[in-house]
Design a protein that fits this description.
Organism: Slackia isoflavoniconvertens
Shape: globular
Keywords: Lyase, Protein biosynthesis
Number of strands: 8
Protein name: Cys-tRNA(Pro)/Cys-tRNA(Cys) deacylase
Order of helices and strands: HEHEEHEHEEEHE
Number of domains: 1
Strand content: 15-25%
CATH topology: YbaK protein
Oligomer: single chain
Low-confidence stretches: 1-7
Structural class: alpha/beta
GO biological process, one term: translation
CATH class: Alpha Beta
Radius of gyration: 15 Å
CATH superfamily: YbaK/aminoacyl-tRNA synthetase-associated domain
InterPro entries: Prolyl-tRNA_editing_YbaK/EbsC (IPR004369), YbaK/aa-tRNA-synt-asso_dom_sf (IPR036754), YbaK/aa-tRNA-synth-assoc-dom (IPR007214)
Length: 162
């Protein structure tokens, strides 16, 4: 279970894991020293292929989508559009992130957003027993199995990395 038990310090993502009784680990790092995803992976001594960043997009239809790709990878917008069955996909503007999701840039978790959006993770996630992703604020990562993440939010695997 989580090593972090102060209720007032918990994020929505941590609360979702705790409420479901699912195994996970919450890891902390210096958010000032580790800014890029690769730096976060290095700070935590993790394989960057196993650490995923959460990206929020908008489709031509106006629907929003969440994509999770390895921190050293880039989202392929054509592949993302195909996975979401959209004509095209674009990244949302940074200023739209907080009002849309409740999260800030660098601390956006696929869990606990203000609204549930269709969510996709790069298919490479299935190669690992555990994956890491934002715990809902800068300086915090959650480590869990993909299967346990999928018990909390409908995450589909797809080939979405450039």
């Amino acid at each position: 279970m989580s090593k972090h038990d102060k209720a007032q310090d918990k994020t929505n993502a941590m609360r979702m894991f705790d409420a479901a009784g699912l195994p996970h680990e919450v890891l902390f790092y210096d958010a000032e020293a580790a800014v890029s995803g690769a730096e976060v992976a290095a700070a935590l001594g993790q394989d960057p292929d196993q650490v995923f960043k959460t990206l929020v997009t908008v489709g031509k239809s106006g629907e929003h989508y969440v994509f999770m790709v390895p921190v050293e990878g880039e989202l392929n917008l054509k592949k993302a559009a195909s996975a979401a069955e959209e004509k095209s996909i674009a990244m949302i503007k940074s200023r739209e992130l907080l009002p849309l999701t409740g999260y800030i840039h660098g601390g956006c978790s696929p869990l606990g957003m203000k609204k549930v959006f269709p969510t996709f993770i790069d298919e490479t996630a299935i190669l690992f027993d555990t994956i890491m992703y934002s715990g809902g604020r800068r300086g915090c990562q959650i480590c869990s199995s993909l299967a346990d993440l999928q018990k909390l939010v409908d995450v589909q695997t797809a080939d979405i990395t450039a």
